[in-house]
From TrEMBL:
Top-level taxon: Eukaryota
Gene Ontology biological process terms, A to Z: lipid catabolic process
Keywords for this protein: Hydrolase, Lipid degradation, Lipid metabolism
Protein name per UniProt: 1-alkyl-2-acetylglycerophosphocholine esterase
Catalytic activity entry: a 1-O-alkyl-2-acetyl-sn-glycero-3-phosphocholine + H2O = a 1-O-alkyl-sn-glycero-3-phosphocholine + acetate + H(+)
Length: 464
């Protein structure tokens, strides 16, 4: 009997196809991925902007590898400035230097507006709502989202005011009276979002200098669009004012997760959805295709904390996957109020932070009650950014991390594959979803890179 090759050796690590740089290619059985950008509602605080990833229809069961159709990782050129705002880069010189470390024109292996792959009668796609990290946006985790879609999930990533950059429809140039206004609580033909109360983007800081406004969006002729720039507040500040500010942000994020799920339910019910970014969007294509009994919530960093809060607030989510959660914004919250099964996947450098203490106590208490629905795993040698697309787009970050004590000792693609495969294993176990045997095989092959959080911290106590 021939010996099986290790799955890691079959992985394409080049990240280049037909002279196009891209994030890791998906490995699941649905090799052709589609994506839709959907914006619903004329409101900055209650509207929806999400990117939807899903298995796309193929022609004659053949995978059509056409990189010329793939979208750019940066949704708009201004997002470069958005990431500079996150890094608090103000000078033109530093901005130009930071821009040079970015690979130009990295692409996402998905087809915009592709048709949904039809399933046999009686089968439906389970759903994952993804919450991005602080200063990220709807494309920052495209590798994870594409991989999950290739494994048979519909994945939706929400937006909020803590993104590196986002935008909203300030006012329309035509009436929306006949486009299902009641579903999203629209109150008229025209809403001026400048009059709305902002959520979580104000803080009492006498040294704060507002960023200059970016020029208006012009590529959507039927709408007047406005940009929302990132509001920089250092993540190292931990005073009460900042904590109150972060709590406002995370409450807004929880609402965004819930509204993204509302949108999934509306699509499944066949409600008329007026996609402001694509008036030709075929909302009926998703009717009766989504499994509303198998809904998971997943997020990274600030998004990792968001999904824990959202799990306690919204019981429609059935499982929670929290990647490297930044616990400061929810340090006063009771984690035992979360009823769903929860998995946490930590990078090695963040697992050493004080923010894991409350998690250790929570999981330890559940283990004493013989509850195995809580799990926390560390990926050895990994760093915080490796669970995002940043290492593939800003390649110099890998060299920077190698310079410091939290240097990564593991390939970011291995971190990506372990993160997605562990997540799918967990979701499949708790939602009774069949998973590919190769997922279990890969995790077993890479077991040397994994260790439990609790065991590590208990050893530290024993040494003391």
């Amino acid at each position: 009997m021939p010996k099986k090759n290790k799955l890691s050796k079959l992985r394409d690590y080049t990240l280049k196809t037909n002279d196009r740089h891209h994030v890791p290619l998906p490995t699941g059985r649905f090799q052709r991925i589609g994506c839709h950008d959907i914006m619903v509602g004329l409101s900055r605080k209650s509207g929806i902007l999400t990117r939807l990833y899903y298995p796309a229809k193929t022609t004659n069961d053949q995978y059509e590898m056409n990189p010329l159709l793939w979208p750019n990782w940066l949704p708009h050129e201004f997002y470069t400035q958005g990431y500079a705002d996150v890094a608090n880069i103000r000078s033109k010189f530093m901005f130009s230097m930071a821009n040079k470390i970015r690979k130009k024109n990295v692409f996402i292996p998905a087809i915009p507006n592709a048709r949904l792959n039809p399933l046999p009668i009686g089968q439906k796609y389970p759903i994952i709502i993804f919450s991005h990290g602080l200063g990220s946006c709807r494309t920052t985790y495209s590798a994870i989202c594409c991989e999950l879609a290739s494994q048979g999930f519909i994945v939706a990533e929400h937006r909020d005011n803590s993104a590196c950059l986002t935008f909203y429809p300030k006012r329309p140039t035509y009436s929306f009276k006949n486009s299902n206004p009641d579903f999203f609580n629209q109150t008229g033909d025209q809403v001026d979002a400048d009059d709305e109360v902002d959520f979580g983007d104000e803080i009492d800081d006498p040294n704060y200098v507002p960023p200059k406004a970016l020029s208006a969006l012009t590529h959507i002729p039927h709408l007047e669009m406005a940009w929302i720039r990132f509001r920089y507040v250092s993540v190292f500040r931990a005073d009460n004012d900042v904590l109150a500010f972060r709590k406002k942000q995370i409450n807004q994020r929880v609402r965004e997760c819930t509204r993204a799920l509302d949108l999934m339910e509306a699509l499944n019910a066949g409600y008329e959805i007026d996609n402001l970014l694509n008036p030709g969007f075929n909302y009926r294509e998703f009717e009766n295709t989504l499994d509303l009994e198998r809904i998971s919530l997943m997020g990274h960093s600030f998004g990792g904390a968001t999904v824990l809060m959202a799990g306690a607030a919204e019981l429609r989510f059935k499982t929670i996957i929290s990647l490297d959660p930044w616990m400061f914004p929810i340090k006063d919250e009771a984690l035992d109020l979360i009823p769903q099964p929860v998995m946490m996947i930590f990078s090695e450098n963040l697992s050493k932070m004080p923010n894991t203490k409350s998690i250790e106590e929570w999981i330890h208490h559940d283990n004493e009650q013989n509850n195995d629905d809580r799990n926390a795993i560390i990926i050895n040698g990994s760093n915080h950014l490796q669970q995002s697309d940043i290492p593939y787009v800003f390649s110099a970050f890998n060299r920077i991390f190698n310079t410091f004590s939290w240097r990564n000792r593991i390939n970011p693609i291995v971190v990506h594959d372990l993160t997605t495969n562990l997540s799918i294993q967990f979701i499949g176990k708790h939602l009774d979803i069949p998973i590919d045997d190769q997922i279990n095989q890969y995790v077993n092959e890479q077991r040397k890179h994994l260790r439990p959080l609790i065991k590590m911290m208990n050893k530290k106590k024993t040494k003391k």
